[in-house]
Amino acid sequence: MQQTEFDGRGSRVRWTETRGGGPMRVYVHGLGAASTVYHAHVAARPERAGRRSMFVDLPGHGISDRPADFGYTLEEHADALAAALDAAEVTGAELVGHSMGGSVAVVLAHRRPDLVARLVLTEANLDAFPPPAAGSSGIASYAEDEFVAGGYARVLDEVGPVWAATMRLADPRALHRSAVGLRRGSDPVMRDILTGLHSVERVYLQGELTGPLDGADALEAAGVRVVTVPGAGHNVMFDNPDAFVRAVAGGA
Fold it and tell me: Which of 6, 96, 190, 230 has the fewest CB atoms inside 10 Å of its own CB, making it the most exposed?
């Protein structure tokens, strides 16, 4: 395990690394998740062996610290991720981001273009204030103190065992602020950033079971390769790991 300070007050963002060659591949989890749980099983496959990789837990999640005075906006998460990459002496990395982690990766590419050479986004949130079906909606529907006092426990009961297994490791206040920040989006908004990143190779994975990706044609016109993954929902890396690995490796 590696760690570095991210907020100027001693709080630490933490990650694990695997040794290998090539540009660093950085895995970034979604809201209420953890990077190793969602990505280690695909990074360990024989066709992925030998690649240097980082599995970063964002502030408030997994094994990273959860300061009470941190905002947990997309920009602040991106800056914490940048601190981890700087500490690991990484530039020109490939970021593999799921859901909120994809949004954070897009914001990082905008704020620190030296750190990112390729983006693989798995059902990343691209727009502010998505439809109520979005996973962050139920969390953000509570006031912060109300969520901490009882909403967190209710959400854990409602989300199902897979998401709850990692969500229960997240700090309730950090989880709520992250959900609110995700719904608020970045400025400029993530979709506009993504379409403008012409120097970065960009791949967007959409689960077939989720339905068509809004604005897919415009993304492809801007050079984003949109891949619909058959038989997969939001958690593409669990539902169809073979297709996920091919997309991360650069195949169709």
Answer: 230
Say what the pLDDT of residue 130 is: 81
Q: Which of 5, 4, 40, 46 is nearest to 25 (CA)?
A: 40
Model pLDDT, residue 133: 63
- For residue 166, give the DSSP letter: H
Alpha-carbon distance 139 to 24, whole Å? Answer: 33
Residues 224, 193 contacting (CB under 8 angstroms): no
With residues binned 3-state (H G I as helix, E B as strand, rest as coil), the percentages for the chain, rounded to 5, are 45, 20, 35
| Backbone CA torsion sign across 206, 211, 214, 219 | positive
Residue 175 and residue 151 in contact, taking contact as beta carbons nearer than 8 Å: no
H or E stretch including 241?
helix 241-249
Tens of pLDDT, residues 212-236: 999 999 999 999 999 999 999 999 9
Q: What is the 3-state secondary structure (H, E, C) of 179-234?
A: HHHHHHCCCCCHHHHHHHCCCCEEEEEEEHHHCCCCCHHHHHHCCCEEEEECCCCC
Give the Cα separation of 185 and 138 in Å (integer).
16
